[in-house]
Amino acid sequence: MPMNKNLNENDELFRNAYQQFEAEPGPDVWKNIQAELNGVETVYYKRKLKRIKQASVIIIALLAGLNIYQHYYNRQAKHAISGKIIDNVKTLKPTTSQTVKSPGYETKTPVANAGNTNENNPVAEQVKKNLAEVREQHIEPVQNSFVMAAQARAQVPMQAALRNRLTLLTEKTAPPLSYASNFLAGQQGLLQPLPMGGLGKNAPQVTVRTHNNPWLLTMYASTDFMNYNLDDDDDDNRRHDGKDEIRGREHHEFSFSAGILLKKQINKNISFKTGLIYSNNAIGIRPQTLYSDNTLGYKYVTSSGYSYVKPIFGGVPARGDSINSNMGQHHLQYAIIPAMIGYTVFANRYLSVTPGAGVAANILLSTKIRTEIESGYGGGEPVLISKLQGVRAVYFSMQTNVELQYKLGKSTSITLLPSFMYAINSINNNNVVKTYPYSFGLGFGITRRL
Amino acid sequence: MVYPTNLKLAVSMPQNYSYLHGPNEQLIQKCLKNDRAAQNALYKLYCNKMLGVCMWYAKSREEAEEILQDGFIKVFKYLQSYSGKGSMEGWIRKIMVNTALLKYKGKKNSNLRLVTELDEDAMLPAKYADGESNLAEKQLLELVQSLTPVYRMVFNLFVLEGFKHKEIAGLLGITEGTSKSNLSDARAILQQKIIGLQKTASI
Question: Which residues of B touch A372 (CB under 8 A)?
């Protein structure tokens, strides 16, 4: 008894000393901690920055390519119109010409017989015929964009809308184009046809400043219903983790995506869409037994990739050792850059329906798993896995969506965006399974004309 | 104060920290944003106490500072998993103990010895600067530090942390019987040393 009493007293003595003892660490300790923290953050931000840079380069390249194409297309169309009309006018050999003097410059225009109407004037009729041909071949695609733009201005009378988009200037360099423009505008019923036979000193010389189709920017958020198809990767170890086991312990949770979509109307019906979308996929993971296949730790395998965890209390595990994990949550974050072609199947003053399809590059931003490792005495030790192995940095997917837009005003619409995506290649690089995610999404957003 | 036997650091991941109360709430928020000044403030708040903890698990001050350093890196790395249910000091203290155990387990193969093979170095108590707690505490610390690593761990976990032998066996990878035997031996050694100190003091 005296021995036990001494032991208890000694224990209390040590406990008190343990509670009260303090010591001041040297200054190097904090310096080392700081250096370690800086190192961790540097690696993290470098990795993140690199992916953002990659995404930016792809977007810029896509936009630049589209702009170059558009510019080239417009220029070709203009040249075609100008060239054709000039040729036609030359062949008509007008009998006279009239000089129109305006402040600062003068313009010579072919003149038909004064006072004749279009119907009675053979020259005008010939021009009209040729212009009709030009219109069909070259101008109509461009003209469609005017019509689309005019439709977008639903609250503005059509004629006024187009007048806003046409700049009437007296200019000596492009009389033939002036004819074409006026004629076409007249054919569309948007502007009154100019009296071709009445060209005289009062006849306006009209040129068209063609506005490029505006970019439409849609900001949206979508709730996504994710799932995946799994295939076993025969090249890897499937002793404990096959596709059935993984499918059995994982379940998809609330996932979402949000971002911006940029749409460029190429012609009346066809449009090109790209953008930048952030996607967060959440997967719940049920408790499982982790096994060690080397000295790095216990292998935590998911449908996305794997990692090795080593509990703080654990030492170096031997091959075949096992440990249990509790419920976990897995987040996969991607930056998605789509390239899609849309086709407008229905459009009126208020509503348009544009299905689209294309491909998307899915750039991995981060992978995280939060779980707990059972420490063998009833407690759990939180584990945060911030990097998974066996996940591709980029995978590609097929994207389809239907853009339902309802116009609220001159430049604003609300957009409902049901979508579907399916992975073309697996998201894994070297995992026990090959995973092909797919998802149905329902997005809602606001579209603005830029 | 005896610490709970359950070393569960966090049960659930908090979505926000608004429910945290006390003077550390803002500090924690800033630390979560990797504000280095805040992290330094948190470090300064607890470093003395925590080095005190680490010293009981280390053979020397240098080793204790290594544990302190690794421990604080874990603190900042896993701060988001701090549930706020217990005190911040208690949470950090547990991380320090865990880190010390991990270090011990890493060196287990080379350091685990029988009581008859005492390391001469381990018998030499570490020297500390003046002004660090009172003499009695330092002497007791030196006595514990003079134990072999396995005795020190078993003694600390049982007496200072309040673990049960079954839990200690699981933590250290030894049998329950070995844990009891090591504790008994450690206590005997310490008691002898305390008697020796008392005799010296009475002369």
Answer: 8, 11
- The residue type found at B72 is F
CA dist B173 to A375, A444, B78, B97, Å?
12, 56, 25, 16
Whether residue B13 and residue A382 make contact (CB cut-off 8 A), yes or no, is yes
- Using CA atoms, how far apart are residues A318 and A107, in angstroms rounded to an integer? 93
* Planar angle of CA A433, A434, A436, nearest 5 degrees: 135
Among B7, B81, B133, the residue with its CB nearest the CB of A21 is B133
ipTM beyond cut 0.95: no
Closest to A269 measured CA to CA, from A309, A213, A319: A213
Using the Cβ of A351 and the Cβ atoms of chain B, whether some distance falls under 8 Å is answered with no
Structure tokens given for A166: 């046409």
Instruction: Report CB contact under 8 Å: B102, A315.
Output: yes
- Name every residue whose Cβ is closer than 8 Å to that of residue A382 and which is 6 or more positions away in sequence: A370, A371, A372, B9, B10, B13, B78, B81
Q: Over 80: is that where the pLDDT of A108 sits? A: no
pLDDT tens digit sequence for A64-75:
777 777 677 677
- Kindly identify which residue of chain A lies nearest to residue B185, measuring between CA atoms: A7
Instruction: Calculate the CA A395 to chain-centre distance.
Output: 15
Query: Rounded distance, CA B97 to CA B112, Å?
Result: 18
Q: Nearest CA to CA, how far is B140 from chain A (Å)?
A: 7
Whether A10 has its CB under 8 Å from any CB of chain B: the answer is yes
Nearest to B136 among A17, A26, A40 (CB): A17
Classified as helix, coil or strand, A190 is coil
Coil, helix or strand at residue B40: helix
Cα atoms in the Cβ-side hemisphere of radius 13 Å centred on B21:
2
Q: Are A353 and A406 in contact (CB under 8 A)?
A: no
Distance from CA of A311 to the nearest CA of B (A): 9
CB contact under 8 A, A381 and B9: yes
What value, to the nearest 5°, has the Cα angle with vertex A227 and ends A221 and A233? 135
Nearest CA in chain A to B73: A33
Q: Do B160 and A24 make contact, defined as CB atoms within 8 angstroms?
A: no
C-alpha B103/C-alpha B74 separation (Å) is 13
How far is A373 from A385, CA to CA, in rounded Å? 12
Q: Any idea which residue has 């979505």 for tokens?
A: B15
Q: Residue A175 corresponds to which tokens in the numbers above?
A: 């009389």
C-beta atoms of A380 and B8 within 8 A: yes
Residue B191: phi and psi, rounded to 5, are -65, -40
Paired tokens of A118: 């279009």
Query: Whole-angstrom Cα distance, residue A123 to residue B121?
Result: 115
pTM over 0.90: no
Q: Which residues contact B154 (CB under 8 A, 6 or more apart)?
A: B168, B172, B179, B182, B183, B186
pLDDT tens per residue across span B135-194: 578 888 989 999 998 899 999 999 998 888 988 888 888 888 999 999 999 999 988 888
B35: amino acid identity, one letter: D
Phi, psi angles (nearest 5°) of residue A221: -135, 145
